[in-house]
Amino acid sequence: MAYDSRADAAQRIFTAPLAFGDFLAVSRDKRDVAASLPYGLDTSLYLLLTDRRRVDGAAAGTLADPNVLDDLSPLQGLLDKAVAATAPLVDAAPLPRAWTSLRYGAGYAYPTHVDCYENVIFQLAGRKNVTIFPPDVVWDTKPDVENKHWPRGGDDDLRRARRSAVSVELGPGDALYVPLMWPHNVDSDEFSVTANAYLRLGDDADWGDYVDRSKTNAWLAYEIATGTRLC
After folding, report:
1. Other C-beta atoms lying within 10 Å of the C-beta of residue 95
2. What tens digit of pLDDT does each residue of 150-191 get?
């Protein structure tokens, strides 16, 4: 996917078929192709491999989709390695794994968003900065449920939200737990490989209740006021 690295906001995302080797080359040095990128040199290029369709039938176009798996089969091995890398910690916890994602990128900044699952970030290569906000900043970030929960808040709103944020740098071998519905953003100045293990408590029948019980008063008030269900 490609998006504007300058905008911590809901925005248009561009996708295009690209050979893995070409993605690696372009993500490391965009100068020769900047004119053809949607945001020029400010374009963040980001590769996401996920087996989410294993638990979410609506997540079409992932590696678990038989329509694309054959074409991307060399990358399936990378995703399998991500699962293996996260297994020692995840399997020791009382949280069943929902799915695993593997993220590749160089010099990207991913906007503030929330995940509707418990999330453990495993840094496999390179370094990445993660900034986490408490869930009560929902009135400032104003997540856009139609655009990956990216912010719709203005500059003043986001500056106010950042007063409550905590940032940490992850290096190879580090892991970070990001609680359900806690806004966070990530950025990296170098080539980075990250595995995310998404976890859930209980079975599918109980998950919605668990999510609702986890919502803070501010989160519930925001959903009521906006007529949306963010998670």
Report:
1. 17
2. 888 888 998 999 999 999 999 998 999 999 899 999 988 888
Amino acid at 186: V
- Give first-to-last CA distance, the chain, whole Å: 23
pLDDT tens digit string along 50-76?
A: 766 665 655 544 444 433 444 445 566
Given a contact cutoff of 8 angstroms between Cβ atoms, the answer to whether 169 and 132 are in contact is no
Closest CA to 14 of 5, 157, 22: 5
Judged on CB neighbours under 10 Å (0-12, 13-18, 19+), 44 is buried
The structure tokens listed for 190 are: 């170098």
pTM metric for this prediction: 0.80
72's tokens:
């991307």
CB 197 within 8 Å of CB 115: no
